[in-house]
Amino acid sequence: MRIKKGDLVKKIAGKDKGKQGKVVRTVPSEGKIVVEKLNIVTKHQKSRREGQRGQRVEIAAPFDASNAMIICPGCGKATRVSYQTTNGKKVRVCKKCGKEI
Fold it and tell me: How many structural domains does the chain have?
């Protein structure tokens, strides 16, 4: 996956199109990511003990990584990612400004 935990991303499709957020979790086997404050869904939680009430909890649900673009820390624009080998290490590079992500 080109998107890693901690990256700043911009959603390019769906109900939250245009919004930005930080990646909290990635699910590489499914090609999905979880971004804080994006793709919020309401989950109904059953009561655990007698006398306790059930509740509705809002959580960030995973969405497909293809619906997000990384925001380059160098130029601040939503960009695609390429790879280069530097000193024997594979690094991600911004397609717009050429700086390392």
Answer: 1
